[in-house]
Amino acid sequence: EALRLPLEGMPLDEVRAKQNLDSEIALAAGASSLIAVNEYEAKQFRAATKIPVHVLGHSLKAAPTMTPFKARSDLLFVGLLDHDGSPNTDSLVWFVNEVMPKLDRLLGKNYKLKVAGRNASKRVQAHSGPQVELLGSVADLRSCYESARLFIAPTRYAAGLPMKVHEAAAFGLPAVTTCLLARQLDWRDGVELLAADRPKDFAAACSRLYTDEQLWSNVRKEAIRRVEQDCDPVRFRSRIGAILDEAVGIPTTQVP
């Protein structure tokens, strides 16, 4: 909410923002252990409570698609788009309205933005057209990841950990995201992804990753490596076991 309201011209003052955050953290009172999905949010809990805080992200196995760079085309967006006020809807509409006109000037219009996910939102449906293809629900997204050259995640307000970026990376599709998502992932701009917030910068990042095969290959390689490191299923299961053992008082070796 603190990120969304300023976009609508109604920013929260610092006192109200702190009150809202304190109220949310207070929900954890009485817990013996807390789990956050990333270090950024874990730090907020550690600053406000003495309850042990653990970080547990996603469990995901990398299975990269093998289509070469030159055989790929188009941009891919994945997300639920049923509600006009959702972060996904906001991000897609922002990208189409603010970023695509600038990207057209850099790339021309010989590309499509393919949008996978339920799309009952009227705002989203209004943007369907020759360059914006609404695919609706897709039972198996692998074919989308195999053919696309670039994944976009222009999310402007959200909490948690963006599973969509992890999934795209696991399928070997490099992404351009907002700086917010890069921070949530703790991934580096220019290494595991490209990140930007202003429309012209986001468009420039998309153009670079869409046209520079060497950059595309480097980002793809590093993103796959981070999924293998951050989302390793074996490590994920071990960490759950350690967290639960600690919560019930069973001595255990700390999982890094």
Task: Specify the biggest β-sheet.
Answer: 6 strands, parallel
Number of strands: 8
What is the 3D shape?
A: globular
- What is the strand content? 5-15%
Q: Strand order within the widest sheet?
A: 5-4-3-6-7-8
**Helix fraction bin:** 40-55%
The whole-angstrom Rg is: 20 Å
Terminal residue distance: 32 Å
Supply the helix-strand structural class.
alpha/beta
The residue-averaged pLDDT reads 94
Order of helices and strands: HHEHEEHEHEHEHEHEHHH
Number of helices: 11
Question: Which consecutive residue ranges, at least 5 long each, have pLDDT under 50?
Answer: none
Seen as an oligomer or otherwise, the chain set is single chain
Structure characterization notes:
By secondary structure, this protein is α/β, with parallel strands linked by helices. It contains eleven helices and eight strands. The strands form two sheets. Strands 5-4-3-6-7-8 form a six-stranded parallel β-sheet, sandwiched between helices. Strand 4, helix 5 (122-125) and strand 5 form a beta-alpha-beta unit. Helix 4 (87-107) crosses helix 9 (199-211). It is globular and about 60 Å long. The protein starts with a helix and ends in a 9-residue tail after the last helix. The mean pLDDT is 94.
Properties at a glance:
alpha/beta, 256 residues, two-stranded parallel sheet, single chain, 11 helices, 8 strands
